[in-house]
Known about the structure:
heterodimer; A: 548 residues; seven-stranded mixed beta sheet; 20 strands; B: 329 residues; mainly beta; five-stranded antiparallel beta sheet; four-stranded antiparallel beta sheet; 40% strand
Amino acid sequence: MNPSHQPEPRKITFQPDTYQEILEGVDRLVNLIRPTLGPLPRHVLISRAPGMLPEQLDSGGMIARRIPLSDGPSALGTALLKNALVKQQEQVGDGTTAAAVMFQVAFHEGLKLVSAGGNAMLLRRFLDEGLQIILRSLELQRIGLDGKEPLTRFAENICRDPHLAQYLGEIFDVIGEFGRLEIIAGKTKELEREYIDGFYWEKGIVSPHMANNPFRPEAFLENPGVLVTNYYLHDPAPLAPLLGTAIAAGHTNLLVIALGFSEKAIGLFVTQSNREKIWVVGVEPPATGEERLDFIQDIAVLTGATPILRASDIETELAFSTLKNLKYLTPEHFGRARRVWVTQESTVISGGKADSRYLRYYIQDLQRRYERETDETAREKLRVRLGKFLGGSATLWIGGPSPLAIQQRKELAESASQALRNAIHSGVLAGGGAALLATLPDLQGRLRAARGLEERTAFSILIRMVKEPARTLLANAGLNPEPILDEVLQAGPGVGYDLRTGQIGHMLEAGIYDGVAALQMAVRTAVSTAALALSTDVIIKKKGNQRN
Amino acid sequence: MDIEEEKDPEVSEQAVSGEPVLSLAAAQDGAQVGKTVFAGSASGLSRSADGGATWQPALESLALAEPVPVVSVAVSPSFMEDRTVIAGVPGGALRSTDGGASWQVLPFTPPPPYITALAFSPRFLEDGVILGGTAEDGILRSANGGDSWSPWNFGLLDLEVLCLAASPDFDRDETIFAGTSSGLFRSSNGGRAWKELALPCGHSAVLSLAVGRVEGGSLTIYAGTEDQGLCFSADGGRTWSLIEGLEGAVNGLVISGSGAPLLAVLIDSRVLVTADQGKSWQRIVLPGEKRAVTAMCAPAGLDLDEPFLLGLESGGVVRLERVGDYLQG
């Protein structure tokens, strides 16, 4: 008998051991990352391969990502929280440690109730109600984030690297929410950045024979015509009349975007006799399937080109007119641009000559779809498309003293840039835990109206929970949190303790921000994960496979 | 008691070129206030050293084979110290660093731009920043006094720029506005990235701009359109209203720097002045034959008691000693 067909051994855990196992795993992870909250964080060392220096981290999100899952009884608690924190880090780039410490409070306090016989499901219902109160209150505190200085301060709050924050502040001030930022490990100790102004994609020149740069296989075209098709240009026969039409249209340069180019097609484009009249550069579209059709549509709107599409694609509902065969091509079907750069790896179109008013409507439509889209992948694709029109592109090279330091700095830059995008989109609020403290009056009001045990406990838990990030920040700085928290709460909403100056003051005025999206997600993560953990009664584990 | 009969103030028109005057710009600092003035036209650039009373050709040192049209001209805010003037011409720009006596052709990357509008940073002497609006290439920005230029068009959805106007507090807020053939854009980072402002008149071409600030208040912006009149914002561009009763292409705007919010509007070929944000208007009326105005400039800032220059379709420039003397209700 094949042993793989035997049922896998399983371990089933019932209460009260279930809570105990989750509690141990949760505390293990939270206690590990708790010291990293705040501008004066402590570090966590994570060992690497033998003989290598340990990794020194001060980002809760990065630690959560690195922490290995053990096979011990507490693994499930660790995994439960780790998954929630990694998701938080990936989606909003910040707020992981705040989420962790809030979760710990909610779980510990909730556990006291359910261990004493309270109703976990009822508790969960009231926690959810309180969650909505907190989210609403945070929503009301939101302000916009705009301008290089505020963006830099926000980035510094996230990455705690002033030099990196300066670069990120400047970059996002230029490219905005939608622009493309490529973060690359550099080869020096310094940071460097470069902006690309135009519609960019990662496909380069299809043949070095099309280059007009004498030193590199690159081409620069002034005022080119633009032809775009999703045909593979195999047969050179219809291409000769195409060139004639382009020349008749007054073009001396032509960018041809096609699915592919045969050697014969390239040969025709680069023959000396043709080249004396028109310089043709071929590139391919960047994607496949529906994404390719989106790209072709974007190029058509950008340059005013009429795409030549295969019949199957023409049946798709498109926002522009199309042709189905090269033989129908006339001069007005060419798009136009001011400049095109084509390197071996990429192409940039600058100054597409389409109707700029129609371009606005097209972009507004993309923005509406972006706002409505709930699927993260589809939303990201829309953001990239919007970025090509609105934000252009920037590259940031991350330098550092060692490959490990560069890698860590690169991860920090990626998290911070994600947080910056979210903050530009969703706004910011008072940092240092102050925005959460400002939700207390609403929660306290609701507590006063609470009747049953579960209801009272739920709002007591949430009141304790929203204080926890501020409390942890103070404790991490070596301060006694309670008297300072009392003073802060008396000073009113938006006020917190500035750990850099040792003063109590308005956090927004001091440039201490939290991103709305990150903080709201942190609260959601804490409450929903705690509610899930508290309403779990039985754990079934496949032995030796706890990672799953 | 003798009562002297009030007479219409007279004006004399000084010939600048045989072509319509397209642009006027005056030095606005120190002892040069109102003295050095430049006038661009389809036949070149002229210079006046006496506030527009007399004019001389400015580009003679270049010994051009044929005249070069000058669509835009701008004088450095620190002209007394740097003596810098930039003139936008088809295919690029010319720079003088000696007050217009000699000129250099500035380098641009191909294809050659057509510079339609120019704006200096108020801290030009320190930061060397100049912005050029172009007919096809959007915004070109130089941070070294014009020695090199780079395009900065992030967010600028229309690259046909017709006018530029910097905030009076540009050195602090880095805010500058660009009118294009299909709308208005604002940059709050010194002209490197742009966001569109929603005008009440949709995507009309914005031909002219004026930006001022009443002390302690928000930026006041006027945007003159080609066919939808004059738009006004009193809150830095967040909200806009359309000023009623003005019909025609708003080809030029001049605003007083601070204090009383005076605004001169060149609409079609006539000039109107308002002191109450467009609620009431007075017209500048020149004695004698009717003259079509194509450009205007307040060499010492817009003030009813100060001189005002009018560029004419005939190629001449008229200097009004006190603009207030020529206003009619």
